[in-house]
């Protein structure tokens, strides 16, 4: 019996340990905020594990022990008085422990919500949409406000202010490796600070049920050194390059003449739609359709021809692209580095 | 006592069995991006009868007519394509109101489809070829719902439009905002 328990415990721990090092795990922290959350998690885990072990041990001892006949012969009041003391002590200890846990978790919540006094912060406005993310890098210089989608780059070792908004229903911004969840509420602005100390790629996910494709609403956070981040920012601020060869030129014409422009923007062209993701540097992103598929030319073709098959219910329109227009369109979009 | 319990159990079971025959509304997520090509020429430019004749006869049925999903999609697209820029949530402004039971170019689905696709003189742009056909039909369904021309079971009970239903207007107490 106990050997079986041991086997199970080791198995569970082995499974848990495989979570570590993953790009979407709250117990693999990459910054000070998530570090506090992970410490809280482990504190809860070990305290509750000890309590669980004690409760199980007491229960097993009680079950295995032969009841002493002396207790059975005693009058009920006497038998209960001994029990009363034990039950009272257990209740008091439980309440005290719950209070301790409450205080610790409130303290962690306060600590993660605050960065102290920071004069200038990189501010990113996150807007939740059914079912994708819009990111805007705010700047006092309007020409340096960058709009992108489904992928953010942030510099390492520098606090970032996330301002959350929503265009339709309540979403929740959550990058488990970096911070706790923050709801994005229509007609309200919610804020959260985060800081990343380890460079890497972290996956975020909507964590408030928001409709048909809630599960397919992901994004990536790419934390990189400051100079690399600045180079990325500078590249992203440029308008899309003009096509250099006739195929790409054909592709751009297709994009501008089809229905794409009513929802998508490509800076540097006349396409200025605001309902869907900005595609100015579409090919520089890792994924398409908000983290559903890797961004390859084949996947993009499947997505444009029949988005409802890949993401049923998506607001990406199903449009009839003529066969000889599709390849140039795909090549053009994949050239938008 | 026992027979009463039996009766309740029987009725509950019968009720549950009846419920299974209820049909859930099907969402059509796979629209056909084809063109029905019913819209022919552009709208007529004429002082006496701009836009062409108003036919009351239904030429083509709206394939996205009655479901709540399509009406709500139409509502989203009405917002996305900035119909409110002129029609102001159905109340009208630069363009005519849509909550009024008066249609200049006909209020049947085929008429509205024609109006959206061809555009009309004095400002209504032509959307033919610019938005997919199935989305035009969804917008048609939503525009008709503003006038109470769609089933109430499929229409939002608290719409974004200005109020057009006289029953709701009568019930509204003065000084109480909706």
Give the helix/strand layout.
The complex is a heterodimer of chains A (337) and B (178).
Chain A: H1 2-17, H2 32-64, H3 69-73, H4 76-113, E1 122-129, E2 132-137, E3 146-149, E4 151-155, E5 160-166, E6 171-174, E7 182-184, E8 190-194, E9 200-206, E10 218-224, H5 226-237, H6 246-257, E11 287-288, E12 293-294, H7 297-305, H8 307-310, H9 323-334
Parallel strand pairs in A: 1-5, 4-10
Antiparallel strand pairs in A: 1-2, 2-3, 5-8, 6-7, 6-9, 9-10, 11-12
Helix pairs in contact in A: 2-4, 6-9
Chain B: H1 2-20, H2 68-80, H3 84-87, H4 109-118, H5 133-146, H6 166-171
Summary keywords:
heterodimer, A: 337 residues, alpha+beta, five-stranded mixed sheet, 12 strands, 18% strand, elongated, B: 178 residues, mainly alpha, 0% strand, disordered C terminus
What does this structure look like?
The complex is a heterodimer of chains A (337) and B (178). With 337 residues, chain A is an alpha+beta fold. Chain A is 42% helix and 18% strand. Chain A is built from nine helices and twelve strands. In chain A, strands 3-2-1-5-8 form a five-stranded mixed β-sheet. In chain A, strand 11 (287-288) and strand 12 (293-294) form a beta hairpin. The longest helix of chain A has 38 residues, at 76-113. Helices cover 37% and strands 0% of the residues of chain B. Chain B has six helices and no strands. Chain B has helices at residues 2-20, 68-80, 84-87, 109-118, 133-146, 166-171. The longest helix of chain B is centred in the first third of the chain and has 19 residues, at 2-20. Chain B starts with a helix and ends in a 7-residue tail after the last helix. Residues 170-178 of chain B have low confidence and may be disordered.
Describe the structure concisely for a colleague.
Chain A is an alpha+beta fold. Chain A contains 9 helices and 12 strands.
């Amino acid at each position: 019996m106990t050997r079986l328990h041991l086997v199970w415990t080791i198995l569970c721990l082995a499974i848990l340990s495989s979570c570590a090092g993953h790009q979407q795990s709250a117990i693999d922290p990459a910054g000070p905020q998530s570090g506090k959350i992970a410490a809280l998690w482990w504190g809860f885990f070990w305290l509750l594990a000890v309590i669980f072990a004690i409760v199980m041990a007491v229960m097993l001892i009680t079950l295995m022990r032969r009841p002493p006949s002396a207790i059975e012969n005693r009058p009920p009041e006497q038998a209960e008085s001994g029990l009363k003391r034990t039950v009272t002590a257990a209740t008091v200890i439980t309440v005290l422990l719950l209070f301790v846990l409450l205080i610790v978790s409130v303290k962690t919540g306060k600590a993660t919500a605050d960065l102290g006094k920071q004069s200038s912060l990189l501010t990113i406005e996150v807007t939740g949409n059914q079912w994708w993310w819009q990111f805007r890098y705010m700047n006092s210089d309007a020409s340096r406000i960058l709009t992108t989608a489904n992928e953010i780059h942030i510099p390492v070792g520098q606090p970032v202010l996330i301002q959350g908004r929503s265009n339709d229903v309540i979403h929740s911004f959550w990058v488990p490796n970096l911070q706790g969840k923050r709801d994005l509420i229509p007609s309200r602005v919610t804020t959260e600070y985060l800081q990343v100390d380890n460079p890497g790629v972290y996956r975020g996910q909507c964590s408030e049920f928001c409709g048909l494709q809630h599960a397919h609403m992901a994004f990536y956070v790419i934390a990189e050194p400051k100079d690399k981040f600045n180079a990325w920012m500078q590249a992203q601020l440029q308008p899309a390059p003009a096509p250099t060869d006739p195929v790409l030129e054909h592709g751009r014409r297709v994009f501008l003449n089809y229905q794409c422009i009513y929802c998508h923007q490509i800076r540097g062209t006349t396409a200025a739609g605001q309902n869907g993701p900005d595609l100015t540097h579409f090919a520089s992103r890792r994924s398409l359709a908000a983290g559903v598929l890797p961004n390859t030319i084949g996947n993009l073709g499947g997505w444009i021809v029949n988005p409802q098959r890949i993401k049923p219910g998506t607001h990406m329109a199903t449009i009839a692209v003529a066969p000889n227009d599709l390849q140039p369109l795909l090549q053009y979009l994949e050239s938008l580095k | 006592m026992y027979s009463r319990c039996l009766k309740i159990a029987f009725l509950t079971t019968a009720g549950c069995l009846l419920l299974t025959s209820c049909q859930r509304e099907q969402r059509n997520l796979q629209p056909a991006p084809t063109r029905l090509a019913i819209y022919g020429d552009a709208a007529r430019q004429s002082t006496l009868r701009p836009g062409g004749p108003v036919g009351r006869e239904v030429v083509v049925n709206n394939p996205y007519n009655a479901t709540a999903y399509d009406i709500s999609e139409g509502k989203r697209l009405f917002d996305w394509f900035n119909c409110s820029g002129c029609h102001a949530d159905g109340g009208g402004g630069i363009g005519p109101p849509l909550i009024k039971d008066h249609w200049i170019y006909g209020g049947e689905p085929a008429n509205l489809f024609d109006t959206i696709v061809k555009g009309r003189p004095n400002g209504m742009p032509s959307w033919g070829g610019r938005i997919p056909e199935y989305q035009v039909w969804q917008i048609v369904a939503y525009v008709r719902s503003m006038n109470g021309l769609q089933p109430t079971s499929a229409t939002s009970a608290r719409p974004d439009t200005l109020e057009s239903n006289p029953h709701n207007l009568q019930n509204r107490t003065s000084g109480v905002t909706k």
